[in-house]
Structure prediction request, 302 residues.
Amino acid sequence: MKKLQFVFLGVLFGFLLSRAGATTYDFYAKLFLFQDPQLFFVIAFAVAVGAPGVWLMKKTKLKAFGSDSPIEFKPKPYKGELIPGALLFGLGWGLAGACPGTILVMAGEGKVTALFTIVGILLGTWVYGLTHAPKAA
Amino acid sequence: MSELLVWSGWVGGIAVGLYTLLQFWVTGKALGCSTGYGNVCGLASKAPFFHTGEYADLLNWRLWFLLGLPFGGAFALVSSGVAWHPTFDMGAMYEQVLPSTVWARGLVLIAGGALIGYGARSAGGCPSGHSIAGMSQLSLPSLLASVGFFAGGIIAVQTLFRVVG
Prediction:
């Protein structure tokens, strides 16, 4: 049941990414060439809605739906490789015109070349895992 | 490609922002896509990295969430009034600059994907985890990562279009 819930959330998020234009290759090139701010607006407005929403959820100590467990607001930590890693990510983001979430949605839309990028992402993740010590929980 | 229905950026952004809050509320967990690729690696690799900490349970929510994404794409296409069909078309922009033979283009995309995969693990997340969920929590590391993502994207695409285009 829990698993199905997450599959359904994936379907919903995938649908929204597509409608937001994040599965259209052209928008990535145009974003980084400063020709069309579509995807910049998507992130900016998502944060403009998300930030006050998170603030309100924290303020009211909202519990996760249908459970007594608190919502995990656990921002990601800073680490030395964060900025070089983000730059490497960005190079790939621009080159492939997709990110780890959107590329799976693109594959679902029938964009065949997405499969190459997915193989690449798995390869990059695997190489990182082979060359790095496990992260404590 | 242009057959896909796309909302204005601000409408799409508000919808994605509301989704982010919905996921926090319904599941208690922050949105994130790239970590789940490690789950897949762990299913095929014995490397300790993919079996410790956040990868102790490889069949956790991240895997099921990623599994749903392609279906969301298929639904988005069909509900745009387009019959589902496979296509090699990458849109007018990338068709200008990427190699036109399938194998050469595939190599470029695999390389780009590898940068994405390695970079996401180094940065600890991708645009969904850092730029959307992270910045919504007003996290400074997530802001720095997002600036890095954009800087890399600008360098790659500006170079690509100046050298090849």
Summary: Chain A touches chain B through 117 residues (CB under 8 Å). Helices of chain A lie at 2-19, 25-32, 38-59, 82-96, 100-108, 114-131.
